[in-house]
Amino acid sequence: MNDVSLVFSAPVLRLGATVFSLGELLAAAGALLFFLILLLAVSLWRSSRTRALAEAEAAARAREAEARLAELARTQAELQGRMGTIAEIFGNRQAELTKAISERLDGMTSRLGQSITEQTRSTHENLAKLQERLAVIDTAQNKIQSLAGQVVQLQQILSNKQTRGAFGQSRMEAIIADGLPPSAYEFQATLSNGSRPDCLVKMPNGAPSLVIDAKFPLEAWNAIRAAAEGEGGPDARRYAEAAFRRDVEVHIKAIAEKYLIPGETQDTAFMFVPSESIFAEIHENFEALVQRAHRARIVIVSPSLLMLSIQVIQAVLKDARMREQAHLIQAEVVKLMQDVSRLDDRVRKLQGHFLQANKDIDLILTSADKVVKRGAKIEALELGAPEGGSAVESPEGDEDGGRSAAIGGQGSLRLRVVEE
Fold it and tell me: Which is nearest to 278 in space by CA: 232, 239, 225, 215?
C-alpha cells in the first residue's frame, strides 16, 4: 500500500517551479474525461430535443396540408358541378344558335337573289358612268402636265439653302414627334450659352439632355454629284470632295463647341443627315470625317438610325417611369399579403366553427338515440293486476334518478317493464 502511495506521489512532470505527480495527472485526466462525457450528454440531449421539435413541426404541417387538400377537393367538386351546368347551358345556346343561323341563311338567300338583280341593273348604269369618267381622266391628264411644271419649280425651291434646311429639320421633327411624348423633347430650346439647337431630348432621372442638330451642308454634296455626272471632270470632283470635307469638319466643330456643355447636355450629340444615300456615301468614301466626328463625340445619324435611337430613348423613359412607380407596386403587394393573412385567419376560424358544429351534431344524435330507446321501453310496458295499491319500482334506473312510476289507490294500475 505504501508502494502504491509512493508511486502516485512520485513526481513525473515539472513545469517551471511546479512539480506534478502521477496521482495529480490521473486526477486531472479523470476530471477532463468527466467533463467530456458531460459535454457529450448535453449535446445528445440538445439534438434529441431539436429532433422532437422538428417532428412536432412536421406533424403540424402535415395536418395543415391535409386540411388544405380537403378544401381543394371540395372546391374541385364545386367546379365540376359548375362545369356541368355550363355545358348544359352551352348545349341549349348551340341549339338556339343553329336555329337562328338557319333562319338567317334563308333570309340571306332571298336577299341575295334580289341583290343579284339589282347588281345587274347597277352594272349597266356604271358602264354609262365609266364613259363619263374617261372624259374626266383626259382632263386630269392635262392637269398632271401642269403639275410636272410645278415639281420643277419645287426643285428650284429646294436648291435654296434655307428652304432645304427647313426640309431636313421638319423630317427630324416628324421622327421625334412620332417616337417620344411631347414632354420628352423641345425644339429650338435655348441653352445656357445662348445657342439654340434644333432639338433637345430630355433624359430621365435628371440626366443631361441630348442635342440633335438637323443642319447639314448639302451644297458641296450637290457639287460632288454634279462632278460625278461629268460636269467639270476629275479635278472638279476632287475640289468638290475637298469642299464637302471642309464644310462637314466646320459643322462638326461648331456642334462640339456650341452644344456640348458639361452638366447641361450629354457628352455626345447627334448630327442628322436627312438622306440614307448621303449617310452611306459618307461612311463609304469619307471615313476620315466619321473618325473625326467620333473624336469630337458627334454621331452622324440617318433617318433610320435616328428612329432606332428614339426607340431606345423611349424604352429608357418607359423604364424610368416603371422605376418611379415601383414603390406603389411594393405598397400594393404589402396590402395583398395583409389580405391573404386575414383570409387565412378567417378560414381557420371557419374551420373551428365546422368542427364545433360536427361535435354538436354528434351530441344531438346521441340524445336522439336515447329518446328512441326510451320510447321503445314505453311501448313494451304491460298493464298488471293491482297489488294493494303499493307502488312498484322499475327494475332499471334512468338518467332522471331512477324514479318509479305507480298509480296509488283503489283500481290503480301497476306498470311492469318487460325484459328485452
Answer: 225
**What rounded mean pLDDT belongs to the chain?**
77
CB 279 within 8 A of CB 302: yes
Q: Are 386 and 414 in contact (CB under 8 A)?
A: yes
* Grid coordinates given for 64: 395543415
Q: How many CA atoms lie within 13 A of 291 on its CB side?
A: 5
Pairing of strands 269-272, 298-301: parallel
pTM of the model: 0.40
Please classify residue 168 by burial: count the beta carbons closer than 10 Å to its beta carbon, then call 0-12 exposed, 13-18 middle and 19+ buried.
buried
Distance CA 235, CA 417 (A): 143
Q: Can you give the pLDDT at residue 157?
A: 45
CATH of domain 167-324: 3.40.1350
CA gap 300, 256 in Å, rounded? 13
List the chain residues with pLDDT less than 50: 154, 156-164, 383-420
Beta strand pairing status for 18-21 and 11-15? Answer: antiparallel
Listing DSSP states for 114-172 in one string gives HHHHHHHHHHHHHHHHHHHHHHHHHHHHHHHHHHHHHHHHHHHHHTSHHHHHHHHHHHH
